[in-house]
Prior knowledge:
alpha/beta, DDH domain-containing protein, 5-stranded parallel β-sheet, inorganic pyrophosphatase (n-terminal core), DHH_sf, exonuclease activity, 11 helices
Amino acid sequence: DKILEAVNNNERILIYGDYDVDGITSVALLFSILREFTNNLYYYIPNRFQEGYGLNEEAIDIAFKNNFKLIITVDCGISSIHEIEKANNYGIDIIVTDHHQPQKDLPSATAIINPKCDKNYPFKELAGVGVSFKMAQALYLKLKKNQEDLWNLLDYVALGSIADSVPFIDENRILIKYGLKTLNQTKKEGLKALIMESGVNYGNLGTKEVNFALAPRINAAGRLGDSKLALELLLTDSEYKAKHLSRKLSEINKHRQEIGDNILREAREFASIQVKEED
């Protein structure tokens, strides 16, 4: 109801996510749904090095200065007690969607959607993007829209769930199964470009291809650069922009691999020197 109220009042809505694959796909999924109903929609992904994980006070200040009335967190927020209290003092409503284990005390959010907080919800192991998909289903149900229209978003759910290593059981097994089917025939320009750039077989993607080809490229943006590059890739409708961004992510991922290789080589050299000194 709060989301629909914000939409009907044309209030500014901010989707706030994490910088890993689960967080980025969660933002992409929810943004794709809500932009059907409002143009007053924005997203925010914190910089891993400057801001760290989760909802932060600087972002709350930015939201207040830019007159946002509603923040929806995805894949984070369940531990952000002080940050959400600050938002409340600013008059900003917060809806938390998360899948992480809650602390003893919960934040004073307008609403909390987390299967680990709901004793009546039978399955507790959804990824953050799985929780976002469930909220999208509830929104469609409220609006009496066709639930089948959400199926084309299951590729996001498969990507985020596999990358987050959730157990492949119960609801996750179903979401991932049909999500991979959707991914293998996706019409999204960003995902098509990412698949082609990764060198994997379009139409024959499984968990291995997601884990070792697609997910590392999405993750690399947040680990070395700007996660927004990956999110822009997932959301773009432009074939040209998709190809450009997918190449950029591959370059960043290659640089990440080179850094890792250098660290490993230096560690081995140091260990070899230590062994010689002990001898």
